[in-house]
Amino acid sequence: MAAKQAGVTIEDVSKSFTVRAGKQVEQVHVLDRVSLRVEPGEMIALTGLSGCGKTTLLRILLGLERADSGRVTVNGAEVRGCGEDRSMVFQNAQLFPWRSALQNVEFGLEARGVPKRERSRTALDKLELVGLAHAADRRPDQLSGGMQQRVGLARALSVDPAVLLMDEPFGALDAQTREGLQAEVLRIHQETGKTIIFVTHDLDEAVLLADRVVLMAPNPGRIDEIFPVGLARPRGDLVTVRGLKEFSAKRYEIWRRLMAGAHPQAAAAAPAAG
Ligand SMILES: Nc1ncnc2c1ncn2[C@@H]1O[C@H](COP(=O)(O)OP(=O)(O)OP(=O)(O)O)[C@@H](O)[C@H]1O
Protein backbone atom coordinates (compact mmCIF):
# COMPACT_ATOMS: atom_id res chain seq x y z
CA MET A 1 0.00 0.00 0.00
CA ALA A 2 1.36 3.45 -0.91
CA ALA A 3 2.34 5.86 1.83
CA LYS A 4 0.68 8.71 -0.02
CA GLN A 5 -3.03 8.76 0.69
CA ALA A 6 -5.31 11.67 1.38
CA GLY A 7 -8.86 12.43 2.33
CA VAL A 8 -10.74 15.10 0.38
CA THR A 9 -13.34 17.39 1.92
CA ILE A 10 -15.71 19.43 -0.21
CA GLU A 11 -17.60 21.94 1.92
CA ASP A 12 -20.56 23.92 0.62
CA VAL A 13 -19.03 24.51 -2.82
CA SER A 14 -21.01 26.77 -5.17
CA LYS A 15 -20.06 27.95 -8.63
CA SER A 16 -21.69 30.08 -11.35
CA PHE A 17 -20.43 31.02 -14.80
CA THR A 18 -21.27 34.16 -16.73
CA VAL A 19 -22.15 33.15 -20.28
CA ARG A 20 -22.17 35.87 -22.96
CA ALA A 21 -23.88 35.09 -26.28
CA GLY A 22 -24.19 38.15 -28.52
CA LYS A 23 -25.82 40.86 -26.42
CA GLN A 24 -27.22 38.40 -23.91
CA VAL A 25 -25.48 37.82 -20.64
CA GLU A 26 -26.62 34.86 -18.61
CA GLN A 27 -25.58 33.65 -15.20
CA VAL A 28 -25.42 29.82 -15.12
CA HIS A 29 -25.61 28.38 -11.62
CA VAL A 30 -23.54 25.20 -12.05
CA LEU A 31 -22.94 23.98 -8.50
CA ASP A 32 -25.08 24.67 -5.48
CA ARG A 33 -23.65 24.05 -2.01
CA VAL A 34 -22.02 20.71 -2.80
CA SER A 35 -20.55 18.94 0.23
CA LEU A 36 -18.82 15.57 0.28
CA ARG A 37 -16.17 13.84 2.37
CA VAL A 38 -13.99 11.31 0.51
CA GLU A 39 -11.97 9.03 2.79
CA PRO A 40 -8.26 8.28 2.17
CA GLY A 41 -8.01 5.38 -0.29
CA GLU A 42 -11.67 5.54 -1.21
CA MET A 43 -12.85 5.32 -4.83
CA ILE A 44 -15.82 7.54 -5.61
CA ALA A 45 -17.79 7.54 -8.87
CA LEU A 46 -19.50 10.81 -9.74
CA THR A 47 -22.40 10.36 -12.12
CA GLY A 48 -25.52 12.22 -13.23
CA LEU A 49 -27.23 13.80 -16.22
CA SER A 50 -25.24 15.82 -18.71
CA GLY A 51 -24.61 19.34 -17.46
CA CYS A 52 -25.05 18.64 -13.72
CA GLY A 53 -21.56 19.96 -12.99
CA LYS A 54 -19.40 16.81 -12.65
CA THR A 55 -16.50 18.15 -14.71
CA THR A 56 -16.72 21.56 -13.05
CA LEU A 57 -16.48 19.92 -9.64
CA LEU A 58 -13.45 17.88 -10.77
CA ARG A 59 -11.79 21.02 -12.16
CA ILE A 60 -12.33 22.75 -8.82
CA LEU A 61 -10.75 19.75 -7.06
CA LEU A 62 -7.77 19.88 -9.41
CA GLY A 63 -7.43 23.63 -8.88
CA LEU A 64 -8.16 24.68 -12.48
CA GLU A 65 -11.31 26.53 -11.36
CA ARG A 66 -12.03 28.45 -8.16
CA ALA A 67 -15.31 27.94 -6.31
CA ASP A 68 -17.34 31.12 -5.75
CA SER A 69 -17.94 30.03 -2.19
CA GLY A 70 -17.18 27.07 0.03
CA ARG A 71 -13.86 25.26 0.08
CA VAL A 72 -12.03 22.10 -0.81
CA THR A 73 -9.30 20.58 1.34
CA VAL A 74 -6.93 17.69 0.63
CA ASN A 75 -5.48 16.21 3.79
CA GLY A 76 -6.66 19.31 5.62
CA ALA A 77 -4.85 21.78 3.30
CA GLU A 78 -7.06 24.13 1.31
CA VAL A 79 -6.88 23.76 -2.48
CA ARG A 80 -5.93 27.14 -3.99
CA GLY A 81 -4.62 25.96 -7.35
CA CYS A 82 -3.00 22.93 -8.98
CA GLY A 83 -0.66 21.01 -6.70
CA GLU A 84 1.57 17.97 -6.51
CA ASP A 85 -0.96 16.09 -4.39
CA ARG A 86 -3.52 15.80 -7.26
CA SER A 87 -3.46 14.80 -10.89
CA MET A 88 -6.06 14.22 -13.57
CA VAL A 89 -6.75 11.76 -16.37
CA PHE A 90 -8.85 13.35 -19.14
CA GLN A 91 -11.33 11.80 -21.56
CA ASN A 92 -8.87 12.21 -24.40
CA ALA A 93 -5.36 11.40 -23.25
CA GLN A 94 -4.04 14.75 -24.58
CA LEU A 95 -0.57 13.41 -25.26
CA PHE A 96 2.15 15.36 -27.04
CA PRO A 97 2.18 13.80 -30.54
CA TRP A 98 5.91 14.32 -31.09
CA ARG A 99 6.94 12.63 -27.84
CA SER A 100 7.23 8.89 -27.22
CA ALA A 101 5.01 7.21 -24.61
CA LEU A 102 7.93 7.34 -22.17
CA GLN A 103 8.61 11.01 -22.84
CA ASN A 104 4.92 11.81 -22.37
CA VAL A 105 4.94 10.12 -18.97
CA GLU A 106 8.17 11.96 -18.09
CA PHE A 107 6.58 15.32 -18.80
CA GLY A 108 5.17 16.05 -15.31
CA LEU A 109 8.46 14.98 -13.74
CA GLU A 110 10.43 17.27 -16.07
CA ALA A 111 8.25 20.18 -15.03
CA ARG A 112 9.17 19.38 -11.43
CA GLY A 113 12.88 19.34 -12.19
CA VAL A 114 13.40 15.61 -11.55
CA PRO A 115 16.81 14.57 -12.99
CA LYS A 116 16.79 12.66 -16.30
CA ARG A 117 17.84 9.23 -15.04
CA GLU A 118 15.32 9.25 -12.17
CA ARG A 119 12.44 10.46 -14.31
CA SER A 120 13.11 7.81 -16.98
CA ARG A 121 13.12 5.11 -14.32
CA THR A 122 9.91 6.40 -12.72
CA ALA A 123 8.18 6.81 -16.09
CA LEU A 124 9.12 3.27 -17.10
CA ASP A 125 7.82 1.94 -13.76
CA LYS A 126 4.48 3.62 -14.39
CA LEU A 127 4.29 2.34 -17.95
CA GLU A 128 4.92 -1.11 -16.52
CA LEU A 129 2.13 -0.58 -13.98
CA VAL A 130 -0.33 0.07 -16.83
CA GLY A 131 1.06 -2.82 -18.92
CA LEU A 132 2.79 -0.69 -21.55
CA ALA A 133 6.53 -0.99 -20.88
CA HIS A 134 6.93 -2.72 -24.25
CA ALA A 135 5.57 0.36 -26.06
CA ALA A 136 7.69 2.97 -24.26
CA ASP A 137 9.34 4.22 -27.46
CA ARG A 138 6.20 4.49 -29.57
CA ARG A 139 4.65 7.85 -30.43
CA PRO A 140 0.91 8.39 -29.73
CA ASP A 141 -0.01 7.84 -33.40
CA GLN A 142 1.51 4.37 -33.09
CA LEU A 143 -0.75 3.52 -30.12
CA SER A 144 -4.42 2.48 -30.02
CA GLY A 145 -6.96 4.67 -28.18
CA GLY A 146 -6.87 2.34 -25.18
CA MET A 147 -3.06 2.41 -25.11
CA GLN A 148 -3.11 6.21 -25.25
CA GLN A 149 -5.43 6.29 -22.23
CA ARG A 150 -3.02 3.97 -20.42
CA VAL A 151 -0.20 6.43 -21.14
CA GLY A 152 -2.42 9.23 -19.78
CA LEU A 153 -3.00 7.17 -16.65
CA ALA A 154 0.74 6.43 -16.30
CA ARG A 155 1.49 10.15 -16.70
CA ALA A 156 -1.03 11.04 -13.98
CA LEU A 157 0.48 8.40 -11.67
CA SER A 158 4.10 9.40 -12.41
CA VAL A 159 4.04 12.27 -9.92
CA ASP A 160 2.68 9.92 -7.24
CA PRO A 161 -0.39 12.04 -6.44
CA ALA A 162 -2.32 11.35 -3.27
CA VAL A 163 -5.56 11.93 -5.16
CA LEU A 164 -6.26 10.78 -8.71
CA LEU A 165 -9.06 12.57 -10.58
CA MET A 166 -10.47 10.86 -13.66
CA ASP A 167 -12.88 12.64 -16.00
CA GLU A 168 -14.71 10.04 -18.12
CA PRO A 169 -11.33 8.52 -18.97
CA PHE A 170 -12.80 5.62 -20.95
CA GLY A 171 -15.80 7.40 -22.47
CA ALA A 172 -14.38 7.38 -26.00
CA LEU A 173 -13.25 3.73 -26.00
CA ASP A 174 -14.95 0.61 -27.37
CA ALA A 175 -16.67 -1.68 -24.85
CA GLN A 176 -13.98 -4.40 -24.73
CA THR A 177 -11.07 -1.97 -24.33
CA ARG A 178 -13.06 -0.16 -21.69
CA GLU A 179 -13.64 -3.36 -19.70
CA GLY A 180 -9.91 -4.11 -19.80
CA LEU A 181 -9.12 -0.66 -18.44
CA GLN A 182 -11.75 -0.92 -15.70
CA ALA A 183 -9.96 -4.03 -14.47
CA GLU A 184 -6.65 -2.12 -14.63
CA VAL A 185 -8.03 0.75 -12.55
CA LEU A 186 -9.28 -1.71 -9.93
CA ARG A 187 -5.88 -3.41 -9.82
CA ILE A 188 -4.00 -0.11 -9.59
CA HIS A 189 -6.34 1.10 -6.86
CA GLN A 190 -5.76 -2.14 -4.98
CA GLU A 191 -1.96 -1.90 -5.41
CA THR A 192 -1.48 1.81 -4.71
CA GLY A 193 -4.36 2.58 -2.34
CA LYS A 194 -4.87 5.95 -4.06
CA THR A 195 -7.91 8.07 -3.37
CA ILE A 196 -9.74 8.16 -6.71
CA ILE A 197 -12.61 10.37 -7.86
CA PHE A 198 -13.93 9.10 -11.16
CA VAL A 199 -16.55 10.78 -13.39
CA THR A 200 -18.60 8.44 -15.54
CA HIS A 201 -21.97 8.27 -17.32
CA ASP A 202 -21.78 4.49 -17.30
CA LEU A 203 -23.62 3.08 -14.27
CA ASP A 204 -22.05 -0.39 -14.75
CA GLU A 205 -18.62 1.22 -14.54
CA ALA A 206 -19.64 3.30 -11.50
CA VAL A 207 -20.85 0.25 -9.54
CA LEU A 208 -17.97 -2.00 -10.67
CA LEU A 209 -15.30 0.44 -9.53
CA ALA A 210 -16.57 2.59 -6.71
CA ASP A 211 -16.96 2.30 -2.96
CA ARG A 212 -19.72 4.89 -3.24
CA VAL A 213 -21.59 6.27 -6.25
CA VAL A 214 -22.45 9.94 -5.93
CA LEU A 215 -25.43 10.84 -8.10
CA MET A 216 -25.65 14.51 -9.02
CA ALA A 217 -28.72 16.38 -10.31
CA PRO A 218 -28.74 19.46 -12.58
CA ASN A 219 -30.10 23.03 -12.50
CA PRO A 220 -28.37 23.84 -10.30
CA GLY A 221 -25.82 21.02 -9.98
CA ARG A 222 -26.07 19.37 -6.59
CA ILE A 223 -25.71 16.00 -4.90
CA ASP A 224 -28.96 14.12 -5.29
CA GLU A 225 -28.13 10.89 -3.49
CA ILE A 226 -25.12 8.85 -2.40
CA PHE A 227 -25.19 5.07 -2.92
CA PRO A 228 -22.74 2.91 -0.96
CA VAL A 229 -21.62 -0.11 -3.04
CA GLY A 230 -21.31 -3.09 -0.75
CA LEU A 231 -19.27 -5.30 -3.13
CA ALA A 232 -16.19 -6.75 -1.41
CA ARG A 233 -12.63 -5.84 -2.46
CA PRO A 234 -10.59 -7.03 -4.19
CA ARG A 235 -13.38 -7.35 -6.75
CA GLY A 236 -11.51 -9.92 -8.84
CA ASP A 237 -12.91 -11.08 -12.13
CA LEU A 238 -15.32 -8.44 -13.45
CA VAL A 239 -17.36 -10.94 -15.47
CA THR A 240 -18.22 -12.65 -12.19
CA VAL A 241 -18.93 -9.33 -10.46
CA ARG A 242 -21.32 -8.30 -13.27
CA GLY A 243 -23.22 -11.55 -12.70
CA LEU A 244 -23.79 -10.89 -8.98
CA LYS A 245 -27.31 -10.14 -7.81
CA GLU A 246 -26.00 -7.32 -5.60
CA PHE A 247 -24.35 -5.72 -8.63
CA SER A 248 -27.52 -5.62 -10.74
CA ALA A 249 -29.66 -4.53 -7.79
CA LYS A 250 -27.36 -1.58 -7.02
CA ARG A 251 -27.15 -0.58 -10.67
CA TYR A 252 -30.93 -0.69 -10.97
CA GLU A 253 -31.43 1.34 -7.78
CA ILE A 254 -29.16 4.11 -9.12
CA TRP A 255 -30.70 3.97 -12.61
CA ARG A 256 -34.18 4.36 -11.16
CA ARG A 257 -33.17 7.42 -9.19
CA LEU A 258 -31.39 8.91 -12.21
CA MET A 259 -34.46 8.35 -14.38
CA ALA A 260 -36.71 9.92 -11.75
CA GLY A 261 -34.88 13.17 -12.57
CA ALA A 262 -34.77 12.69 -16.35
CA HIS A 263 -38.05 10.90 -17.20
CA PRO A 264 -40.26 10.83 -14.09
CA GLN A 265 -43.09 8.89 -15.77
CA ALA A 266 -40.84 6.08 -17.03
CA ALA A 267 -39.22 5.79 -13.61
CA ALA A 268 -42.60 5.63 -11.86
CA ALA A 269 -43.66 2.82 -14.22
CA ALA A 270 -40.48 0.76 -13.54
CA PRO A 271 -40.82 -1.85 -10.76
CA ALA A 272 -39.07 -1.14 -7.46
CA ALA A 273 -35.68 -2.81 -6.90
CA GLY A 274 -35.43 -6.19 -5.25
N1 LIG B 1 -16.13 27.79 -18.56
C1 LIG B 1 -17.46 27.78 -18.64
N2 LIG B 1 -18.16 28.87 -18.99
C2 LIG B 1 -19.49 28.86 -19.03
N3 LIG B 1 -20.25 27.79 -18.73
C3 LIG B 1 -19.61 26.66 -18.38
C4 LIG B 1 -18.20 26.58 -18.30
N4 LIG B 1 -17.85 25.33 -17.91
C5 LIG B 1 -19.02 24.65 -17.76
N5 LIG B 1 -20.06 25.45 -18.03
C6 LIG B 1 -21.48 25.09 -17.95
O1 LIG B 1 -21.66 24.45 -16.70
C7 LIG B 1 -22.61 23.41 -16.79
C8 LIG B 1 -22.01 22.14 -16.22
O2 LIG B 1 -20.95 21.71 -17.08
P1 LIG B 1 -20.06 20.44 -16.70
O3 LIG B 1 -19.17 20.19 -17.86
O4 LIG B 1 -19.45 20.63 -15.37
O5 LIG B 1 -21.19 19.31 -16.59
P2 LIG B 1 -21.04 17.73 -16.65
O6 LIG B 1 -21.98 17.18 -15.64
O7 LIG B 1 -19.62 17.33 -16.55
O8 LIG B 1 -21.58 17.45 -18.13
P3 LIG B 1 -21.31 16.20 -19.11
O9 LIG B 1 -21.84 15.00 -18.40
O10 LIG B 1 -22.11 16.55 -20.34
O11 LIG B 1 -19.83 16.14 -19.37
C9 LIG B 1 -23.01 23.33 -18.24
O12 LIG B 1 -24.21 24.05 -18.41
C10 LIG B 1 -21.89 24.04 -18.97
O13 LIG B 1 -22.34 24.63 -20.15
TrEMBL record:
All residue ranges annotated as the ABC transporter domain in the record: 8-243
InterPro entries found in the cross-reference section: AAA+_ATPase, ABC_transporter-like_ATP-bd, ABC_transporter-like_CS, ABC_transporter_ATP-bind, P-loop_NTPase
Alphabetic keyword roster: ATP-binding, Nucleotide-binding, Transport
Keyword Disulfide bond: no
Domain of life: Bacteria
GO MF terms, alphabetically ordered: ATP binding; ATP hydrolysis activity
PANTHER family, per the entry: ALIPHATIC SULFONATES IMPORT ATP-BINDING PROTEIN SSUB (PTHR42788:SF13), TAURINE IMPORT ATP-BINDING PROTEIN-RELATED (PTHR42788)
Protein name: ABC transporter ATP-binding protein
